Amino acid sequence: MAAENEQQRKSSSVSDMGAWAMNVISSVGIIMANKQLMSSSGFSFSFATTLTGFHFALTALVGFVSNATGLSASKHVPLWELIWFSVVANVSIAAMNFSLMLNSVGFYQISKLSMIPVVCVMEWILHSKRYSREVKVAVVVVVVGVGICTVTDVKVNAKGFICACVAIFSSSLQQILIGSLQKKYSIGSFELLSKTAPIQALSLLVAGPFVDYLLSGKFILNYNMSSGCFVFILLSCALAVFCNISQYLCIGRFSAVSFQVIGHMKTVCILTLGWLLFDSAMTFKNVSGMFVAIVGMVIYSWAMELEKRSNLAAKALNSVKHSLTEEEFQLLKEGVETTQSKDVELGGYTKA
């Protein structure tokens, strides 16, 4: 039995690593593809919101094919919950884009870093979830490390601050909803994604061009599409399918906080690849911040493993206590019945 449990634990660990690896690789890949797609030295395709609509359209198509061929099962989720989730997710995408446009890069990075404590507070309010001291320390170390290597100039204005607050709240709520909907309706990550993707795709493809016009002053219908740009859009969409699936998978298997922490691992990877592939500057400040962030992630992994083992030990102890109580009750019950039987026999013998 112990060997079987150990085998299951190892199998689960391999699956966890696979989910994380898929998310990190696809996320870093899509950012690199989008950098080439949107930069002035690339194809200058500055329609980020519409591009996200393309991402979800391909994801919805993959989900439809999977359901039609029986590769995945479709479970019922109320339509109003799917619409509510899609509204929150789309507001998150638009608010993030507006925040980046209206604020400095430094303040934008600070707003992204603040999502971890916001998610912690929201999970505490919504789900009464508490975190160990080790997890809190690890989160602080990660935030400080990423802050050191990414935050430079910090400029903010009233409109940008409001957009940043909306982006932080909606993004945090979206990630919490992914986990809670999966648990509430016992639905898999891909099944949930295949239900929300069509709604998000439709709404983003309708509203996206107008949002992008407000952001860039350009309309997508006036853009001259080249074959190279079309190839990179397809590549971006294909990577987005894996990125979306792995996001839902990671949050479903772990938590929104864990997803945020691993997200900053992607930031470290992007900075490193930018230095290797695009000749981006790499200063001592960047390197030291990345080192601190990696140390924080190692501490977080250790703290989560510690918490997981503690929870398993607590469950095993409760199970043993429950089992002993039942056995004691049965022994007590058998003892009472035996005593009653002997009393009857003894009484009969006396009367005789």
Automatic annotation (TrEMBL):
Subcellular location: Membrane
Segments passing through the bilayer: 43-65, 77-100, 137-154, 223-245, 257-278, 284-303
Membrane topology: Multi-pass membrane protein
Sugar phosphate transporter domain sequence ranges: 27-301
A Pfam family assignment: TPT
Keywords: Membrane, Transmembrane, Transmembrane helix, Transport
Keyword Transit peptide among record annotations: no
Transport is among the record's keywords: yes
First-listed, main subcellular location of the protein, grouped into a coarse class: membrane
InterPro entries in alphabetical order: Sugar_P_trans_dom, TPT_transporter
Protein name: Sugar phosphate transporter domain-containing protein
Native organism: Brassica napus (Rape)
